Amino acid sequence: MKFLSSFVTFENLHEVRRLCHWGPIIALSVIAICSTMAILDSIIWYWPLDTTGGSINFIMLINWTVLILYNYFNAMFVGPGYIPLAWKPENQHDTQYLQYCRVCQGYKAPRSHHCRKCNRCVMKMDHHCPWINNCCGHFNHAYFTSFLLLAPLGCSHAAIIFIMTMYTQLYERISFGWSTVKIDMSAVRQFQPLMPFSLPAFAATLFALGLALGTTIAVGMLFFIQIKVILRNKTSIESWIEEKAKDRIQHYQTGEEFIFPYDLGSRWLNFKQVFTWSGTPKEDGILWPVHPKCHQHTLTIEQLKQKADKRVRSALLISAFTDFDSSKRAKVEAKKQTAPASFNKGVRFCHHSTGNEALNQESKENKAETNMDMRPKTAAGGLRGVKTKSTFPKIGPRQQQKFRNTLDRWLVKPSKSSSATEECQGQEDVEMTDEEGSQNPLAVYVNYENIEKSSISAMDDYSQVLTPQDFDEGFPLLPDSRDSAGKPASSQDASQPLEACSSHSEGSAKQRTKSSAESFAVKNGWRGTSSGEQDPDKEHTPADVKWLGTPIGELRRMPDCGGKLPPLKDVPGQHTVMIRTDVLGNNTVPIPYPAKFIDTWDNVHVKMPCSNGNLFPVEDEKKSRWDLIKETLSQKFTNVFEWKEAVLKYSASHAKKWDFSALDLYCNKVLEPDAEEHLFDCLLPDMVRLALRASELCTKPIPLLKRGMDHSITMSQEQVACLLANAFFCTFPRRNSRKTEYCNYPDINFFRLFEGSSSKKIEKLKTLMCYFKSITEQKPTGLVTFSRQRLDKPPNWKSSQTLLTRLHITCEGTIEDDGYGMLQVDFANKFVGGGVIGAGLVQEEIRFLINPELIISRLFTEALDDNECLIITGTEQYSKYTGYSQTYKWAGCQQDTTPSDGWRRRCTEIVAIDALQFRNFLEQFRSDKINRELNKAYCGFSRPEKDSQNLAAVATGNWGCGVFGGDTRLKALIQMLAAAEAGRDVAYFTFGDRQLMTDVHNMHSFLAQRNISVGDVYDLLGQYYSSVCKSCLSRRPDVSLYSFIYRQVSSSVAPDEPTRGFFPRYGGPDLP
User: Fold this and answer.
1) pLDDT of residue 317
2) Whether pTM exceeds 0.70
3) Residue 303 belongs to what domain range?
């Protein structure tokens, strides 16, 4: 039962103490009294159990009790979810829009509030409920509301039983007031009641009736309050904040329009944000779907404004209160306060100039914090009996550094900008005055929505969890952080202007949930280890050792290990082949099949831009959008403005929302004059001609690879190039908004790539333009296959007797270069490609950029399920690169020399598997999480139709680590187990982590030399969670995973049993 599972698997045993509180004691007592009395009365008095109705009545009472207790204990022990200690947003700039919690020593994420009872910042806090002795918040809101619904229903049922029981006790028959309508209980029951009437029994029933009716009324009212706010996607606290916002706007007449950011516009969508079939909310508790006109920090900014308003009101009230005696007036000292360094490096607030030079001069001074020194009046001056000194609490220098959300940051006086460079792009403050002409202290606010002129479009109605746009995050990583690929990434210079907070969440999320476990580990020296203590078996590898284990040259690669492929043919329902297979020849461009375009406009195929169903409204009629596309793109472009105008003609609904700043910067600032001329005279016209050949090249309908499908699509590289050219010109219909049938698919049109002014966007454009230049100058002749694969029956991991396969592990090299010919792992997002056409730029995005043919998989691949993967074979690498994330640079064109297989596909096989994201470190060691990751990896690695001798090794690395919160050593072990079960060797790249290389190699050698099977290791993982993690009271276990395995395996070996010692096999210079 899920209830028992959730009850016994919570990580901190001290949670049991929640029961030792008057709230749960009273609540459980009421439940026990009402349930027990109702069940006993139904057995003894009413309704006779020897009837059908009586049996159903009894079962319903039992059912109410079970459901009520299930939801009650889940609400209590699952908990609301807490913001990690010392949490801060991935983007350093966002700290200015968040409140700082001095207790938790971190920033409060959107919708979170600090609970004084729980002493933690609670995710999406609604209130602290004494009846469950816990907060009602993000993760237990559904359970709490379900309890509020079920308790009145159960009590109402029990009340009916109590009423009928008392009638039965008092009278032998029940009369309803009419002499002709009587119910004779003795006529139904063959025997007399099991217990004769007694005064104590009647009193007990009456008491239980009072409890049931009182609970029904009280809890029922609470339920209606909760469901009201849930249907608007609010909490009780947020409803209060919204009311205060409207009062503030009305009071100061600021002219603002406050839109509650989390109301998605549909009660059903709002309802699904809390209630899901799995019982676990969709969101991660840090970032949230928002209204199209809002952003992640709309509500937090409003909270800061309200706090500023509160300070001003308090100051005015105190001043007025003490002002009636001028000789004893409160002294107000303006103490100059130096802004924190991090704030000085952050966003500078810019203002319009005014004619008031005094205000301009004053605004150039340092910000001051007003400190009220109240001197209470004595009998001589009034206010008798006041003898204490009342002052505002002072904040020390250290707290001033952290608690930066002061009044002065939001109440800014207008001033002239000293230079144009000091102005933030599109950002302005407005001075407002009241009717008397005096300056309104709350009139001037930072206009967050204009930080960049990038409007929030209608497509950003976040209705999906972990949507692809959520991974278009342009935030810098923290100085000590590593991303999911395990590479270190330097943080962005804080002095760099804040990049656009555009609709696709350059403020939202693949980088959004920078794992709390990761950041906490950095501070405590736990980088990459399973716990804070070092493994006792840990040894250090010499600095000149670059790899360990089996030499990489001994691992199997394609095409050497691959068997003969069957003939390529179209198999309906299994494999869609879009070219003629009977005329395939070397160095010839494949011919599309069929010869003429088949127009299909339905929900199981890609809606093509050249389809007759692609219509464009013109006045009172609809015309073909494809004709308009051909007309506008066929014109010669001489600059970016003409290019933009052409694209917006057939995307008129987005004319005010799309931003081509990055494209403009690339063309006008980055390209040399000769290169810019070549772009508009040669490359762009070639790309247009390629895009407009869609009906000639892509003649067969392209099936959508939906969830649950096992299907492959094979197309030529030229067809892929045509589709990518259409994506570049944003021609695919129904793919610019999340409100269409493609809401569960990644973005494909490139409009997000053109937004903002980030240097990462520029490097992306360089990389993609290199691809288009290559394929327009010389037509590619190969094929590419996209296969969605589903794992129907996972292995029985516990009983597996498979032994580990060979391992090569290295701290140098990359998957794409050194893992050529192997099965190369893409550390994927469930929406394949992640933020490749947005602002994301880590392992998956980089791979999709240098092999751009991967991007077209976003056109037809629905979000991956837990038992699915996507396999892409045959893509070509067109670019070289250096750096990573913020330091990524395009390094020129690449000539891919990878050989081809029998189907004219390059022997580059890439598998996209998405890892889970963990809110806390210990969660990933649970058996269900380990099963999911094992099955996901096995789904990507296994090929049941092939012999293991024909399977290439797996080239992988720190899959699901870094911002996803995965433990590197656990993930390495999981991938080794999955590869062994699939019959593949492993080439593991640690991306510079030498200690991880040593630890994983030693563990592999230890297990392999003792013939420890996959099932044995799986059992050890279960033991580790049950004996170490489950009872752990801290955030990290005291015993690391590898130390536990060493100890358990060593202790299981008999004392007289000889064991082989294991020694690392070093590779590198000056080593034998």
Assistant:
1) 76
2) no
3) 298-450
